[in-house]
Structure formats: structure tokens, C-alpha cells
Amino acid sequence: MGTSPANRALTGLHDVELAAYAAAGGRREFGELVRRHGPAVRGLMRRMGAEASAADDLAQDAFLLAFERIAEFRGEGAFAGWVKRIAARLYLKRRKKDSQYLLEAETREPEQVEAYAGAGDRIDLDGAMNALTKAERLTVSLCYGAGLSHSEVSETLNIPLGTVKSHVKRGLDKLRERLAPQSAAGAGSMAHG
Asked: What is the pTM of this model?
């Protein structure tokens, strides 16, 4: 690939190029990958159920592990997806101590997220995710945030594939309902009034 892009702006490089430089020892290039994808990894950890400080720690640990294994990144998929899978697996590994995490019935209803007034077209994905049960939030996050297949989630969580599919379907149904445009519901009630 030539020499390090010391004179070129790192922001102009593709993730695959940055990863190749990082594999050759380029710390600045890897730092650019962290800058680009750190917020998304922390967001995924939060959506999976981690508290803010734990999400920061998990993201940092995931990037450290990614740096150690950067030579394994082949550029066949997105770097963001690769590091999110690393982070998701770290999160799950730390949750393993509570092996019945998904299998126990929840004793409380999911958090109720208040509807926001006058928000226009803004989507509150975090609020909608908080309305899901722990199992739904975790499986949806792993499938759609970390890019794992249903089979990979089943294997990772050690729960039946059908259970994973059920949690994901219920979670997605709830998200669709919660994130549906409110104007359609309001227009129907106005027509009857």
C-alpha cells in the first residue's frame, strides 16, 4: 500500500485502507477508525442494555481487541459491522455469569416511553428500544445492530433458534408500531371528529 498517509487527511481514506495501515502498525489510522465508529459501537451497547459507563468500557475493550486482531479484518464486510460483532460478543461474554438472563420471565413491564409532542419527523429509536423486553432488545440489537444471523444469536446465547426468531419478531413488531408515523393515527381520529 505504500507509505503511511501522513501527508494525506485520514478522513479521506476508506475504512479498508485505514485498517491495512493499522495492520502495519499505524496507530493514527486506527485512531481514525475509532473516531468514525466509536459512537455507533457505544450506541449498540446501550441498545443491548448496557449502562452508559459500561457501554463506554465495552466499546473501548472492543476497539482494543480489534486493534490486536486488525490483521484478521479482510475488508469483505464493513469495518463497523466487524467491530460491532466483537463488541456484542464481549457484552454477551460478560453477561454469561447470569446464564438465565433471557430465559427467566421478567418481573416488570418494559419501560414506558412517553410520546414526544411537536418532535416532527424525529425518530426516537433509543426510546422505542427501551420499550422492548430485555430479550427482545438483546436479540434485535444482535441481529440488526451487530449483524449476527438468527442462528449465530441462537448459538451465542445458547437458546433455541425458534425462541430467537420469536423475540426478534415481537421486538420488530413493537418497534414498527412505536415508530409508525403518528400523523396517520391522528388523521383517522380527526376524520371521525
From this structure: 0.65
